Amino acid sequence: MPNDFPLRKIIHVDMDAFYASVEQLDNPDLRGKPIAVGGSSKRGVVAAASYEARKYGVRSAMSSVLAQRNCPELIFVKPRFERYKEISHQIRNIFYEYTDLVEPLSLDEAYLDVTVNKKGNPSASLIAKEIRQKIYDTIGLNASAGISINKFIAKVASDVNKPNGQKTVNPEEISQFLEELDIRKFYGVGKVTAEKMYKLGIFTGKDLKQKTLEFLEGNFGKNGSYYYNVVRGIHTSEVKPHRIPKSVGAERTFNENLSSEIFMLERLDHIAEELEKRLKKANIAGKTVTLKIKYSDFTLNTRSKTLAYYISSKSLILETAKELLYQEKLQNSVRLLGISLANLNTEKKEKTTDKESISVQLKFEF
């Protein structure tokens, strides 16, 4: 592993089954039982599942019908996002007791840079343990953590000892840790990419490491260089306290499949209105409109158009979405529609330089 790139002390904190755990926290009758946060109707989707439910193969994004089939005793609970946000805010306040370099990824996970921290504690591992204990003592929820020299390895490590555990990967352990890792565990390698890697004989980090940069770029495009670097422990992205969104979107899943474009246009009108509200609230505009279509057989189709100017108004968003809807003939009835706006006017403000990174020797106490 090279010695000349920035080494930091990064913690990735990931709450365990967050939505489901909050429901069990607030309702003691649900504790120890298999629960799913989401809708129980035939059109419903599981947003989160308790560990008791996961034993039966219940997973997020699974249809409620399949989840109920896998676990007949499954209890469905309606999501309460305001409550999840409230708890997430409390957790984030605990993070800020240790560092201001906190980058939330979602309501239930965040990166923390504790290279220099408010407690003056040189051990990132002890800080992670203390944070997890404080979350449990003050809120009553369990968290897991990964600790290492960069965001990628910390993210991967946080999943190793879940639930309610943590994993530290020291600099001298990185090569072996990544080489032994199943390729499916690499952050950024999804199901489709993993299957493609399998066909190319890549099953572990060691297999990936043996491939040249040219081979990976040839097979995976611009992502090839990312895979080439991260398997060598190289990931220089800083923890960014004010994460700038790459896109803003809104979508709806329907109770009944839609087969008429007239009904779809009506739904897109509501979605565009919701998207406009979100854009105005964040004072954001964008150039690239993407229409997301999920068919009744769960196949997904996206269509995009980039304009020459920034937009944020409902009328212009809807006009472009309509154009995208009619761009191709629909393949089936539709169960979900979504519109997102990317290529935002915030991206030019984002700084990606590593000039302020802290460089230290490879021998790094964790």
From TrEMBL:
Site annotated as Substrate discrimination: where? Y19
The coenzyme or cofactor needed here is: Mg(2+)
UmuC domain: from which residue to which, for each copy? 10-190
Q: Which UniProt keywords are present, listed alphabetically?
A: Cytoplasm, DNA damage, DNA repair, DNA replication, DNA-binding, DNA-directed DNA polymerase, Magnesium, Metal-binding, Mutator protein, Nucleotidyltransferase, Transferase
Q: How is the cofactor bound?
A: Binds 2 magnesium ions per subunit.
Q: Which of the seven top EC classes does this enzyme belong to?
A: transferase
A matching Pfam family: IMS_HHH
Q: Which SUPFAM superfamilies match?
A: DNA/RNA polymerases, Lesion bypass DNA polymerase (Y-family), little finger domain
Catalysed reaction(s) here are:
DNA(n) + a 2'-deoxyribonucleoside 5'-triphosphate = DNA(n+1) + diphosphate
Q: Where does Mg(2+) bind?
A: D14, D108
Protein EC: 2.7.7.7
Q: What is its main location?
A: cytoplasm
Q: Where is the active site?
A: E109
Quaternary structure, from the entry: Monomer.
**Per its record, how is this protein called by name?**
DNA polymerase IV
- This chain's source organism reads Zobellia uliginosa
